[in-house]
Amino acid sequence: MIAQPGESADALIRKFNKKVQAEGILTEIKKREHYLKPSLRKQQKIQMARKKYIRSKY
What's the number of domains the chain is made of? Predict the structure, then answer.
């Protein structure tokens, strides 16, 4: 990103943070931080689906 004339550093930081969140970079980094075996990933996905289903019922 290039700063526009008269744009403060705080505004640039806010723009950068917004862009990073929109692209999902931080979530991807956290996801790749530790290796998860495919079987464990599948179990985790099933558990999340169960939680989501239970929450949606109430």
Answer: 1
- The structure's pTM equals 0.49
Q: What is the pLDDT of residues 4-55, one digit of tens each?
A: 888 899 999 999 999 999 999 988 998 899 999 999 999 999 999 999 999 9
Pair 17, 8: CB distance under 8 Å: no
Q: Is there a domain that residue 3 lies in?
A: no
Q: 2 in a domain, yes or no? A: no
Range of the domain at 37: 9-57
Answer for the pair 38, 49: CB distance below 8 angstroms, yes or no. no
Angle between helices 25-32 and 9-23 (to 10 degrees): 60
